[in-house]
Design goal:
The protein is 35% helix and 28% strand. The chain has 250 residues and is an alpha+beta fold. β2 and β3 form a beta hairpin.
Length: 250
């Protein structure tokens, strides 16, 4: 299995969806997609962030009469069907099915058109960056795909190639994001970004509390709750299942 990674960096005002990520720095998304045929694609994308940001994303996806993700300089006549699979105050998950991709020059459409069938697309969005990872049976026509993407990208979007090589880690859990309150997620992200989970640790709870401007006890509590959710979510077990198993082993 081969992989190609690249990044799209957006300027403000180019794309309504990416504008939302720039306005809400804690908003993030993960997606996975694959082609049914050269002109048809399904996608599941999970957005995690503040309720106001999710409300806007949902309106853009479900209520807009015209495409709201501006990536190319050409018009797109693809038929889009969107459905909400999950919605909470901190998470929204969409299932999307696109037809008539031959009328588009988006990244997904160009990948479907030029790369081997069996392709799997993974992507992450945060801030002004949309990071892509394509898993492919082979790297045939990658140069053509890359050239086409750069040719059709709209103004205000910068395309940067990452790597082309053997797939190093499949990240099959990329959509198994655990739903947790926004405050816990933001605290966990800050802990990761400031090196709390590095060995040795690069920041203490006390220092992290100063960075976040919240009491140390609050930071500690939020991290404990977030870590518990992650551990349980990773094993795909609910609180009740944990208690049941624990009862049987004591």
């Amino acid at each position: 299995m081969r992989e190609l990674t690249f990044e799209l960096e957006y300027q403000d005002g180019v794309d309504p969806v990416m504008d939302t990520f720039m306005e809400y720095p804690t908003l993030s998304s993960d997606s996975i997609a694959s082609c049914v045929r050269r002109d048809r694609l399904w996608c599941i994308e999970r957005f995690v962030g503040p309720t106001a940001a999710l409300d806007r994303i949902e309106r853009l996806r479900l209520e807009a009469e015209t495409p709201t993700e501006e990536m190319t300089t050409t018009d797109c006549d693809a038929v889009r069907q969107h459905e909400v699979l999950e919605r909470s105050s901190t998470t929204v998950v969409f299932y999307s099915f696109l037809k008539r991709l031959h009328t588009c020059n988006s990244v997904a459409a160009l990948a479907a058109r030029h790369l081997d069938l069996g392709l799997v697309c993974q992507s992450q969005r945060r801030g002004n960056c949309h990071e892509w990872r394509l898993l492919m049976p082979s790297d045939e026509n990658v140069d053509v795909f890359s050239e086409k993407v750069q040719t059709h990208l709209g103004d205000g979007i910068r395309f940067t190639i990452g790597r082309l090589g053997d797939a190093e880690q499949l990240n099959y859990d990329s959509l198994a994001t655990v739903s947790m309150p926004h405050e816990q997620r933001a605290t966990l992200r800050a802990a990761i970004e400031h090196g709390y989970y590095e060995t040795p640790r690069e920041i203490t709870i006390s220092e992290l509390a100063t960075v976040l401007d919240v009491p140390q006890s609050t930071v500690s509590y939020r991290l404990r709750q977030a870590e518990a959710q992650l551990a349980k979510g990773y094993l795909h077990r609910s609180d009740d299942e944990f208690r049941t198993r624990a009862a049987h082993t004591t």
